[in-house]
Amino acid sequence: MRVSVTLVALAHALSMAAAATAQPARPPTTRELERINWMEFREVVPKQIDTVLVPFGTLEPHGVTANGADIIAPVAIARAIAPKVNALIAPAVPYGITGSMDAYPGAFTIPEDVYRPYVKAVLAGLAKNHFKNIILINGHGGPQTAVLNALGVEIGREAGVRTLVVNWWTYCSDVTLEVFGEDGGHAGENENAFMLAIDPSLVHKERYTGPEMTTANPPAGAWSAYPTPSSIGLYKEGQGFPKFDQVKAKRYFDRVNEKVGKLVEDTIRKWNMIQ
């Protein structure tokens, strides 16, 4: 009789353990690294989440929207796609290599010999904290893109992690054509609309006086100027002027997030097929 009771108790305990194991893991209380508690982080990473999204930007003029558009946009993308790709979000690296717009009021630029080791240390820290997939969502182009591309490869090799660098506006250039019917520009229709979708209060339509506020980007080797003569730089002459269409802005925002999220998902799935 005693043996039978013991066996029943053991079977019950094993059944309870199996049920607990079968239960799906609870989502984290927050997706943002600066808000998560260290004990929860230990429970979640990497057992439940092994992907981190890292927004990169800079402070520079953006026509009639915020100087921090290059920070605000990738942070918004990260927040939109994090649940879908099962990732946490690292705090943004806000200061970057601004380039020829750094003479405008409120702009900053960080020399490459300072920026590069700092960013590498950030990425190494994420690898040390057991993230297997490090996704760099870049909001600013120019030489910053080349630095991030190079660092992604370096950290991948040195720390044994997988990295993906996404320049969202370039990757989604087809979405720009789909939604607006023409090409965009720096602080042009596409980027301006993205900000309009995030927070309309950051877009000051009343300050836009028309095409005289814009300059088309020159062909390679044609000419260069410091500072850049306009804070709205069109990718193609006569295209990409801000139009402040709230409906198209929302559609563009959703389509960009959908496309970037799918890229992250597909890349991780393919990584998992080879490792």
Question: What do these coordinates show?
Answer:
The protein is α/β, with parallel strands linked by helices. The protein has a single domain, classed as Creatininase (Rossmann fold), CATH 3.40.50.10310. Helix content is 47%, strand content 10%. It has nine helices and seven strands. It has a four-stranded parallel beta sheet with strand order 2-1-3-4, with helices on both faces. Helix 3 links the parallel strand 1 and strand 2. Helix 8 packs across helix 9. The model has no long low-confidence stretch (mean pLDDT 93).
The share of residues in helices is 40-55%
Would you tell me the overall average pLDDT? Answer: 93
Topology, number of strands: 7
Count up the helices: 9
Instruction: Return Rg in Å.
Output: 23 Å
Largest sheet: 4 strands, parallel
Placed side by side, the strands forming the largest sheet appear as 2-1-3-4
CATH topology: Rossmann fold
In terms of structural class, how would the helical and strand content be classed? alpha/beta
SSE string: HHEHEHEHEHHEHEEH
Shape verdict = globular
Task: Determine and state the CATH class.
Answer: Alpha Beta
Q: Please state roughly what percent of the residues sit in beta strands, choosing from under 5%, 5-15%, 15-25%, 25-35%, 35-45% or over 45%.
A: 5-15%
